[in-house]
Amino acid sequence: MMAREPMLQQSPDRRKRNFEEVALGYTEEQALREAGRCLQCKKPVCMNGCPVGVDIPAFINLIKERDYIGASRKIKGTNSLPAICGRVCPQEGQCEKECILGRKGEPVAIGRLERFAADYERNAGHIQIPKAAEATGKKIAVVGSGPAGLILASDLAKAGHSVTVFEALHKTGGVLTYGIPEFRLPKAIVEAEVNYISKLGVSIKTSHVIGKLYMVDELLAAFDAVFIGTGAGSPHFMGIEGENLNGVYSANEFLTRVNLMKGYLFPEYATPVSRGGKVAVVGGGNVAMDSARSALRLGAEHVYSLYRRSRVEMPARDEEIENAEEEGIDLRLLTNPVRIIGDGKNWVKEVECIKMELGEPDESGRRRPVPVKGSEFRLEVDVVIVAIGQGANPLISSTTPDIELNRWGYIIADAETGKTSKEGVYAGGDIVTGSATVISAMGAGRKSAMAIDKFLSD
Fold it and tell me: How many CA atoms does the CB half-sphere of 382 hold within 13 Å?
């Protein structure tokens, strides 16, 4: 069985001091070899793992036939963000997990091939804008320009509806822009994919905070349907002593300063961000890895990654953990912060931690971390970044009292349609599920688009 084609990367020593993309993508020759591994199964179970229903065998076969632009356009039939998905989606737990080759070896590198096709079309300058269906006269308001909102907007625009996206920030893309670092997802890629969606006829209005500028009820008065895709942008903290000290960031604020506001280019961009000498990042997910690797690139001499469970339980992608370790991130497992200590001038000086051991599984199915009595120790740090998850931003819910929420403050919406308790209002992505993946949010956006199209047609 032919081995899976590896992807070239910047070397760890070079990449840890720049914000350029780590993964360099396939060459044409590599893409052809990897596409040649696809068995073109009569019953392609890989598609069962794709939340947006990409015809995976078809686009890979087009690559085999050297029709790379055709491959990209085949993907765009159901996914308007292929260059993004090819970079940040966890294919190893979705489409590639279902690949038949993975039963006895390595699955086809579906994500890398998707990235190759999308990049080829964009670099060739042959982006084709599909013709929309006949105008229906119906209008849809989309709140949030993250992955769920963008996919929904593109699908409804292609169906002939008039779509307006309202984005609170001054840049489009949601978490794609403010959350994921340049070295994993270049912002030029996000801008190019958003530009494609704009050319489908979608109107995007930035710096429009819904819940302040307009209420959802006001949108309903002006539009035939409303979709809420505002994500989960309210950071969680640990609730320990010292979290109010200078030098303590939520990962949300830290990454927003670095990514959206170009803090890593200060003073060229006027957004300061603490460039700690020694940094502690708390958490074990992709956001924690992004924060740790960003801190390193900002010039930190030592970055600790503190996680209270073992490596097996870490929710971050294996690829991200491996990249972080290669770059020198000091991964401290079974370690939990209990106090942040100041220097007497309200700045972080140390973080006190306690060792943990794993007990019985909790409601998440992972073994519960239990403190080891008397195992406290301190690490000298001057910046602490808390990356333990995010909650629902309450702005929409607090100004829309008749929309039903669950006990965590997320909008309750039907899993198959996105329909909420409020007539004509749909929701999807992290504002419904809590923090999840880009592709799962896109899948929710696609389902809601189909439901809204049906709602407007009835």
Answer: 12
CA pair distance 88, 194, nearest whole angstrom? 16
Residue 11 vs residues 14, 15, 31, 111, 400: alpha-carbon distances, Å: 5, 6, 21, 21, 50
Side chain identity at residue 147, one-letter code: P
Residue 132's Cβ-side half-sphere holds a number of Cα atoms within 13 Å equal to: 21
**φ/ψ of residue 8, rounded to 5:** -70, 145
How much is the pTM? 0.93
State phi, psi for 162 to the nearest 5 degrees: -90, 120
Decide if 340 contacts 306 (C-beta within 8 A): no
Do residues 139 and 227 make contact, with C-beta atoms less than 8 angstroms apart? no
Dist. CA 384–CA 382, nearest whole Å: 7
Q: Are 420 and 396 spatial neighbours (Cβ–Cβ below 8 Å)? A: no
> Tokens 């996680």, residue?
307
* The length of the chain, given as a count of residues: 458
In Å, how far are 12, 56, 151, 349, 432 from 158, measured between CA atoms?
43, 21, 11, 55, 25
Q: Is 11 exposed, middle or buried (0-12, 13-18, 19+ CB in 10 A)?
A: exposed
Summary count for the chain: helices (H), strands (E) = 17, 16
Instruction: Please check whether residue 111 is in contact with residue 35, taking contact to mean a CB–CB distance below 8 angstroms.
Output: no
Task: Please report which residue ranges of 258-387 form alpha helices under DSSP H.
Answer: 286-297, 318-326
Q: In what order do the strands lie in the sheet with 302-306?
A: 248-250, 383-386, 278-282, 302-306, 330-332
Q: Please report the sign of the dihedral spanned by the C-alpha atoms of residue 333, residue 339, residue 342, residue 348.
A: positive
Q: Over the Cα atoms of the chain, what is R_g? A: 23
**pLDDT band, very low/low/confident/very high, at 353 (cuts 50, 70, 90):** very high
In the chain, what is the greatest distance between 2 CA atoms, to the nearest angstrom?
Answer: 70
267: preceding bond cis by omega (within 30 degrees) = yes
DSSP 195: H
Q: What is the pLDDT of residues 237-274, one digit of tens each?
A: 999 999 999 999 999 999 999 988 877 776 676 667 77
Whole-number pLDDT of residue 19:
94
CB 157 within 8 A of CB 183: no
pLDDT at position 266: 65
| Burial of residue 364 (number of CB atoms within 10 Å: 0-12, 13-18, 19+) | exposed
For helices 56-64 and 68-76, the axis angle rounded to 10 degrees is 170
